[in-house]
Structures are given as structure tokens and as C-alpha cells.
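Our preliminary data section would be incomplete without showing what the modeling component actually yields. Below, a chain of 260 amino acids is followed by its predicted structure, encoded as C-alpha cells that our downstream tools consume directly.
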Amino acid sequence: MAEDGGRMGERIQLVDRVFDLLEHLADDGGSRSLSELTRLTGLPMPTIHRLLRSLISDGYVRQESSKRYTLGPRMIRLGESASRTLGSWALPHLAQVVASCGETTNMAMLEGDASVYIAQAPSPNFVRMFTEVGRVVPLHSTGVGKALLSTLPDEQVLAILQRAGMPSITEHTLTAPESLLADLAHVRKNKYAIDDGEQELGVRCIAVPIEGLPFTAALSVSGPSSRIRMADARLIASRLHAAAADVTAAFDATRARSVS
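Predicted structure:
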């Protein structure tokens, strides 16, 4: 019996090490060298190399021509499945925002150096915003992206911008780190972010971060600038904040049920 317990402990330790490696690969742009992984995990290099070879053969990790390691294609299916699961409990609360504002409501989360949409409740209007669940968008030019960045210290924001860049998408896109940091200071003060034609001309987005989740996430309302007026930004943000609190409560309830 003691021998079985020892083997179980070894298996659990192995699983912990594998997930630790995957987490480090997902951080800071999703690319690491063998020496970086050794330093971050504290594991011997031969151990990490052996684990990586196994993960590469299963498709969960990929080695680039530069000899650096990144997450592999099989992680995409896991991520998409997780996104659908996340959206299932968030959707009713997104739908409530649509009912009150009349515009498309999205939920997004921070994924590496970008934002990925994980749930959407569409507007009933014929002309409306549509974003595919699973779509990855820049952080610097979107409302959800700025809401996500507002939860991070400026040093971390600058590190992300250095890796991801700040390409100009429209004539209104912020392309200088100093301008974005100044914008994020307003986001933190006002408790909501605005994308005013920065990702797509003629489109306005109001977004707020979601507090209390084990991952960094945000909610947004998007629609034509003709319907989402700047004068309504604070009211829309207040409805998003209420929905964000409901999303967090729903997540806690779901997690409690899964544990019990």
C-alpha cells in the first residue's frame, strides 16, 4: 500500500511539473528557451527536456526553428472547449446587458499578449457588431483590451506593448506607449474603457474589467457610434459593472458545485 501511495505521489508531481511548464509557456508571449524554463521552474534541464519531448510528441508543445518552445496545436482544442464552457455560465448575464442597452455584449479574457473573446450576446438590431468567439484581438486598440490592461501595473503593460507592438489599425488608434498609459490612467479612474473607432471606424465600445475571477477578463458593449453616444458611456458602464458582478457570482457558484 505504501508503495502504491509513493507511485501516486510521483504521478501527481509529474502532472504538476507538466502544467507548470505549460503555464510558463503561456506567459510572456508564449515562447521560452530551455534555459529560461529551467530558471523559471527550478527543475534540472534534463528533466525539462524529457517532459518537453513527450509534450511535443503529443502535440501540446511545439519547438520552433529558433529552438524555442511554444504551445502546440492540440492546445487550441482545449482552449476552444474551455471558452465554450466559460461562455455557458456568462451568457445569461451578457443577454441582460443586451436587453437594457440594445447592443452586442462581449466577454473577453487576457491570453498572452492579446485578448480573446470567449462569449457573446448579439444585438437584436439589423446593423450590429459581430465578433467570433475565439477571435484574438490586440489589447491597445480595443475597449476590452484596454479594460484588461488597466488591471495590470504600467511596467507589465509596457512589457506587453514592447512584445506585441502597437500597429495603427485606424486613424484613431493609439500607437505611442505614453498615450496608452495616459488613457489607462483615465480607465482606472473612471472604471471603464472606451474604444472610439480605434479598432474599426464608426464603431464605439465601452468596456469594464471583471473583478474576482481567477483569470483576467472584461465585458464590453459595442455598436455603431451613431447609437452608442459618448454621453451614455457612464450609464452603459454601470450596467456592465452590475453584469460583471453577476458573472463573478455565477463563476463562484459553478466552481462550488463542481467541488461539492
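The first strand starts at residue 31 and ends at 32. The chain has a mean pLDDT of 87. Preliminary results of this kind motivate Aim 1 of the renewal.
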